Amino acid sequence: MLKPKINIINLENPQHITARKIFETVNDVPLICPHGHVNPSLFSDPEAGFGDPAALFVIPDHYVLRMLISQGYSLEALGVSRKGVENRVYDPYQIWEVFCKNFSLFDGTPTGLWIENELSMVFGIDEKPDVANGRELYDALQEALESGAFSPRKLFEQFNIEVLCTTDAAVDPLSDHQGIRESGWKGKVLPTFRPDALVNIGHPSFLDHIRKLEECCHKAIKDFPSFIQAIEERRSYFKSMGAVATDHATMTAYTCRLSPERAEALFQKGLRGDIDQKEMQLFIGHMIFEMARMSLEDGLVMQWHVGSYRNHNPAVFDAYGSDLGFDIPLQVEWTRGIKPLLDAFGLDERLRLILFTLDESSYARELAPLAGVYPAVKLGPPWWFHDSPNGMRRYFECVMEIAGIDNTVGFNDDTRAFLSIPARHDLWRRMAAIWLADLVHSGQLNIDIAKQRMQDLAYGLAKRGYRLA
After folding, report:
1. Which pLDDT score, from 0 to 100, does residue 411 have?
2. Domain spanning 50-150 has what CATH number?
3. What pLDDT is stored for residue 9 in this prediction?
C-alpha cells in the first residue's frame, strides 16, 4: 500500500497506538474494488493515459465541480461541454488555475483529503495547491503524465489491486472488457450489469434504450415477457464476461409484485409514452422485484443504491447532462418498501442483496435490523456523501452492533477517480482500525480477534460478499 500524506491515526492517543498495530496487519493486503465507475477504456488500451491535470483532477470529478459551481463558476468555465458539442477545445491550465485558486474550499472535506493524498501517494507532491504554486504543480503533473510511468495499467499494479469492477449499461457491448481480455494483460477488471435505463420507464430515453436492447439481442421487444427475456440474456452475457454483480439505483425502496396482466399494461403504456408518475413507481417497484428474482436464479450479486434525487436542476441536466454534482440525498423508508421483495426472497440464501443508502438516519432504525435477520441482505459501506472520516465513524457506530460485522461487505470505493482508489481504501482501513481499537480498550474484543476482524473489513468481507472468492 502506498503511504498517504494524511494519516488520521494519532500516536499520542493510547487507543490509536493500538489502532496502528491493528492497521499494520493489512499493510500488504490487496485492494478488492467490487463496485465503482472507472472507465474500462483506461485498461483496454496499453497506451492509454490521463490527459492533462485538468482532465484528471477537475473536469470528470463531480465532487470538485459541485463545490466550484457553489461559488458561481459555470460548467463551461470548468471544461464541461454542452450536450451535442464534441471535441470542445478548452485551456487546461486556465481550469487548473481556477482549481488551485479555490482549493481552500475543500478544507475539511473528503474531496480535499482524496486529492492531497492522490498528489502525495501517486506523484510524490506534498504541496497543497494554491495560487502561488499552481503553475509549478501543473508543469510537474503534466511532465509526469507524459512520461509513461503513470499509465493506468502500471498504476493498477502499483496500487496492488486484486480485482476492479466497473459499472456498465445493460446494452453496453463490453468491447473494452473484451479488449482487456484479448490483450493478455493480467489485471482483473470485471463488468457490472446496470439496467437503470431499462427500468426507468418514464424517462424520455426509455424507448431509445429498448431499441438498443433489441439490437443487442437481435429480436423485437413488443411485450413484457420478451422484454424480461432480453434482460435475462444480457445478464447471461455479462456473466460470461466475468460479471459477478448487478447495480440498481432508485429514489425509493418501494417494491411490489404485479400480475402478468398489470405488468404488460404498464409496459405498453411506457412504449407509448403515456405512463403517469404512480404507474412509473409501480413498474419500477416490480422491476426491482424481478431483478431480485433473476439474481436468485443466476447468482449475480444484486446491489441497490437508494435515496438520490438525480439531476435536481433540470436546466443543468438539459444543457449539460448528468453526474455534475446536482444529485441530492432523500429520506428513505425501507421497512415497508422492501417487504414484498423480502417476503418472497429474503430467507433464500441464494440471493445476495447489498443495500446502500444516503439516509444515515435509517442505518440503526431499519437497515441494520434488516441485515441482522434476513439471510439475503447485506449492508454496503458508507456511500457518496458519507464516504468520509465522520461518515465512516457514524456507520461503524450505528450499524455494527445491530447487524454484526459479517452482515456487511467491507469497503468499496465507488469512484470515477481511479487515482483516489488507494487513498479511499487507506482511509477505510484506518477508520476500521480505530473502531476496532475502541472495542479492544473497552474490553469487547481482544487484540488478536481485532486483528482477525481487520482482515475481514479490509479484504475478506468484500471478497466473500461479492462472491469473488
Report:
1. 98
2. 1.10.2020.10
3. 66
Domain ranges of the chain: 14-49+152-465, 50-150
Is pLDDT above 80 for 4?
Answer: no
Domain 14-49+152-465 adopts which CATH fold? TIM Barrel (3.20.20)
C-alpha cell at 350: 441464494
Q: What is the dihedral of CA 193, 198, 201, 203, to 10 degrees?
A: 90
Burial of 131 (0-12, 13-18, 19+ CB in 10 A): exposed
* φ and ψ of 246, to 5 deg: -115, 165
- Encode burial over 356-389: b for 16+ CB neighbours within 10 A, e otherwise: bbbbbebbbebbbebbeebbbbbbbbbbbebbbb
Residue 396: name the closest of 378, 385, 408, 412 by CA: 408
Of 193, 150, 153, 160, give the one whose Cα is nearest residue 44.
153
Q: The pTM is what? A: 0.95
Classify residue 3 by its DSSP letter. P
**Within this chain, domains 14-49+152-465 and 50-150 share the same CATH topology:** no
With H, G, I as helix, E, B as strand and everything else as coil, classify residue 122.
Answer: helix
Inter-residue contact 152 to 50 (CB < 8 Å): yes
